[in-house]
Predict the 3D structure of the following.
Amino acid sequence: MNAIEIDFGTPRRESAREVTVTIDGQAVTVAEGTSLMRAAAEAGIKVPKLCATDSLEPFGSCRLCLVEIDGRRGYPASCTTPAESGMNVRTQSPKLADVRRGVMELYISDHPLDCLTCAANGDCELQTQAGVVGLRNVRYGFDGANHLKDKKDESNPYFTYDPSKCIVCNRCVRACEETQGTFALTISGRGFGSRVSAGMSETFLDSECVSCGACVQACPTATLQEKSIIEMGQPEHSVTTTCAYCGVGCGFKAEMQGTQVVRMTPWKDGKANEGHSCVKGRFAWGYATHKDRVTKPMIRAKITDPWREVSWDEAIGYAAGEFKRIQAEHGQGAVGGITSSRCTNEETYLVQKLVRAAFGNNNVDTCARVCHSPTGYGLGQTYGTSAGTQTFKSVEHADIIMVIGANPSEAHPVFASRMKRRLREGAQLIVIDPRKIDLISSPHVKAQAHLQLRPGTNVAVINAIAHVVVTEGLVDEAFVAERCEAKSFGQWREFVARPENSPEAMEAISGVPADALRTAARLYATKGKNAAIYYGLGVTEHAQGSTMVIGIANLAMATGNVGREGVGVNPLRGQNNVQGSCDMGSFPHELPGYRHISDSIARAQFDAAWGVTLDAEPGLRIPNMFDAALDGSFLGLYCQGEDIVQSDPDTQHVAAALSAMQCIVVQDLFLNETAKYAHVFLPGSSFLEKDGTFTNAERRISRVTKVMPPMSGVGDWEATVKLSNALGYPMNYTHPSQIMEEIAALTPSFAGVSFEKIERLGSVQWPCNDDTEEAGTSVMHVGGFVRGKGRFIITAYQPSDEKANRRFPLLLTTGRVLSQYNVGAQTRRTPNTAWHAEDRLDLHPHDAEERGIKDGDWVGIVSRAGDTVLRATVTEKMAPGVVYTTFHFPESGANVITTDSSDWATNCPEYKVTAVQVSKVTQPSEWQERYRHFNDAQLRALRDAQVVVPAK
Ligand code: SF4
Ligand code: SF4
Ligand code: SF4
Ligand code: FES
């Protein structure tokens, strides 16, 4: 897994035509368009270079890579010269050596000679190339004009910019443009005076820079350098692993000194990211060893008691005893478990197995309940399986991209960079979102259509688009006839063609002008073009979340945009392993691989493998668990890696439910909000401490690799095994790879998955079995839908119960920011707070003015569920009547306001529509005061535990 990465100098070219050149006497055949530099590298011949690197288009500025070509005058740069058939090229000659030394001499004459104490010593291309060209002295001396005293910019929390070391190779500027798409850097000044500049000569922190690290990665010198390397020195080994933040699932190399991470570098061969990263995965890993980590098991009888640190055996014994007592007194169904999308597939599988086999019920649910459960339902019903249809790379073939209720620049940044690249190449963009998200207008990207709908009216909009498609002859009749059910299509066509679904009728409901709806529909359904849909929680987290997913699936089928590259329906999954936690059977009605618990054949297979008789009745969903807790019939919960108090809606309801339970076991890194209601705390492990797999939004299963031992001494999967054994259901695994073997044996779509294969191929995509390629399936539904014929389902628009009215005249919608992640437990414990240190309420200037609110004022937000206080940001990004906040900080109480309104099919909460009133205030809300007292008491209880009882 740790193959040396070769830099071929220029990017790979795709071409059906090949050319053969001779380089240093060696015949080399490459795709047409390949540079001479790359052709040489592919033949194992290294040409000196500085401004070229294979992640960026060649620039031809350093002149170090010159070569001689028979029949050509001068010395062409090999990085910018394409290989042509019959060329005879020399990369080495006395003259070339002379020219290269001259070039290098000039660079070095304006470079500090502090190699021995430089952070990049041993990892600097300038140093290496000076050695390669044989530079021995510098004739110009170091006394002339130079940049050696230029001031460093240390404003970015994670990297420094030292202009004295800059060779103006432009790699950083190109990385920011080509790889990241932010265009934050320029070369300012001319000739000798040219220097890299962030924004309008601002500091990096004040500029548009989003700290993705692409420029740092590209810089061949120590000019842009990670602070961790400056502080700790160069790594001595590296291990390939997968980012534990978002659903993009970027591959990384954890660069190590022993068991200490010194840098995370995006993995060039990682198929989800191809060497790119965002600020979270690249830099925000310090939480893993943060002083707040709780590393000792703890127990307490009541949440008002101080915690007692105990041995693992005592903690597990206490938890098992309590669960058994509760079941004996209140019935088998009085306990359950919640799995987390932050955990690995193997860990999640074990928790659902424990619930089904050791607890003997199906009371297991996952945090996907509150994000993408409607995706599972909607795509399952229409296409036959609940997963995104494409790879991320597939967007490179899309001509029209429709983004619905998603903000990839903030929530799926590495995919956003890929998408923006395609948009800069000319693909057209439709955005359906109540907010003016970054994509609508970013450097060299402009949306052709922005449908700025009222929150809660997605279905009205998708029906209007479908209406245009069927009434204007834009249906792909051949695709529908061949691939879809005739009857359901006929019914759907008749339904959407009705006048009440026309753009003109839907304008009044959605607030989107009819002509904009028509333009978007015509664009999406352009005949002969590839149109791809990407959607997020702005689709699913609605009372009609499942209906909208179905509406999207219908539209893609009707226009023939399923089953090949560049098209499809792609849910952008929020957390790293949302896809996996669903795949692993952590829903109360489904076994691993989405087989219904009432399916007696599937159940029999698990009964035989697990040696139990599974309950055929679906168990409780998370909201049902809360209701049952308040009824007194659900009293014990095993919650692994999920902070339901902060992330689920209607915080006060959740807190009341947890307060009513008798045994809550929380397994986590920190004493999170849920743990403050717990009776047993089992210390969890970070992704750096575990072996396992994550499955990203493209169904890609990648390895998570242990680089340091668990801080608590026990891995997450081992804790579940211990608990199961103590409950009387034996589990006997010695390594997570054995758990994957069991998953593969019991789950047809995973039958070909193994740690060995993932390590050999880098990653695989499910379905992965004997019927697929060795690496699984990249595009779904090619030639036919998983369920056979695609099924259309009628999607009647129903207004949400959450409506703006006189008491609550504004609609609140929630989301994320780039620098923070979900409940913020990890990113709040990193320097990412430099970008986002508090949740704020965004509102339109008109709404602010009406209420006398100015930017930065404290504002109270009241809904029918509760109230909280945040500071205001007045911004034109919002439409009048709509306000927005994030939920990264517990004290903000964003979910104190959100209500119990939820998706009709899956109970996914309607986070995206809450009717609220906003007004200027001067003090925290009553809930915030209560929270402060409760939180102080809980932190005291934790502190006291550490003082009173010494660690064992
Ligand atoms: S860190 Fe990323 S966004 Fe910032 S300047 Fe570098 S490439 Fe651009
Ligand atoms: S900062 Fe680094 S990558 Fe950018 S121009 Fe200077 S040396 Fe090149
Ligand atoms: S895009 Fe997502 S997976 Fe990739 S580095 Fe960022 S947070 Fe991690
Ligand atoms: S590497 Fe070719 S000109 Fe710089």
